[in-house]
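Lecture 7 notes: from sequence to structure.
We start with the chain below.
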Amino acid sequence: MYNSFYSSMMLAIEAQRVIELRLMRLAWGGSEGLAEAQSMVLEKVHAAGEAMTTLMLGGSPETVIARYREHVAFNTERLTAI
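Predicted structure tokens for the same chain:
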């Protein structure tokens, strides 16, 4: 219980940084902004499908949260490596 709550809260906090970085990239516009908008949509669809598959195959919500945190960490690293 505690681990799920902690992981969920950390995901929410970490995701705020990605949101900030993406908004800055979208605000700058141009080809990078367009590419970010497109990748954002594709990533959301892929992550939702991955989560659904994990749960349908008997995975736990904690596993889904951990995987989402991996996606968020990757995006944070990608968006700050300019």
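Points to note: The chain has one domain: 2-80. Residues 2-80 form one domain.
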